[in-house]
Amino acid sequence: MSELKNITVIGGGTMGNGIAQIFALGGFDVNLTETKKELADRAIRTIDKNLSRMVSKEKIGEEEKNTALDRIQPHLDLTAAIENADLVIEAVPEQFELKKKIFEKVDQYAPAHTILASNTSSISITKLAAVTSHPEKFIGMHFFNPVPVMKLIEVINGLKTDKYTTETVISVSKKLDKMPVSVNDSPGFVSNRVLMPMINEAIFCVYEGVAEPGAVDEVMKLGMAHPMGPLRLADFIGLDVCLDILNVLFDGYKDPKYRPCPLLVKMVEAGKLGDKTGEGFFKY
Ligand code: CAA
Questions:
Q1: Which pTM does this prediction carry?
Q2: CATH number of this structure's domain 194-277, picked from the four choices 1.10.10.10, 1.20.1540.10, 1.10.1040.10, 3.40.50.850
Q3: pLDDT on residue 117
């Protein structure tokens, strides 16, 4: 297995900047691409702030923070950012057409040995792999928010992903001090196939007047030892993202048990998307 050294992260949003941070702290050289200078600057500022928090908690020293920051090179030009990449991780919004366009370009300009990964939480890895000329080198690396805190990386094997690609990604995940779990491509993978029906059912409890949002969350926090209740978690993930994933499950399995609760649909239509809009099931 060859050593991965240069990592390119495409997209500097919540997930992308977290991914860049953990690779830089893990000693890798990171190219972080964004579409606008303001967005690239914001990603670096967020990483700086999160690393400073780690310094103040004495998890890392000031020097380690600065070394990690120096390892991250922001880019606005995707082609230049991938020319030496050993591993490319895409973390852009969950739109198939957008990801397709990016992977077609990456496929054209990345070196032949490069492993391509998507951080998608719901789009088929097999379908994304099919837009590239090396589907055997394509894989899902599904990180969890907040990336620096959550231990899991759900490693998703597409239909054509080869053993070498899976083993390499598992090995690099362990070097980041994460716990990779390998699963096969299927709508929602394992994480969201299990998580989203729970969140949806919690929303149905509110919709049917069984309990107020606060009470639903207290039950799950105090009774099931969840760090956040399902409705607080839904706000944290984004209600639009939850709805998109439920629709992927509903369409993928054609099973009514995945139907999104009408209250979720209505809240998304009203623009109440959770933390990012200041209001969801709770106010922020
Ligand atoms: N970056 C770095 N560190 C962070 C952080 C961030 N963005 N947010 C919190 N932390 C750290 C804090 O510094 C703190 O560290 P110490 O324990 O060393 O002090 C630790 O995390 C706990 O943070 P807080 O004390 O501030 O708050 P908390 O105890 O309430 O924990 C939480 C916050 C970690 C988010 C916790 O509530 C939790 O685990 N929630 C569940 C999160 C979850 O389920 N995420 C997965 C969502 S699903 C997804 O991402 C994928 C998908 O496909 C939808």
A1: 0.95
A2: 1.10.1040.10
A3: 98
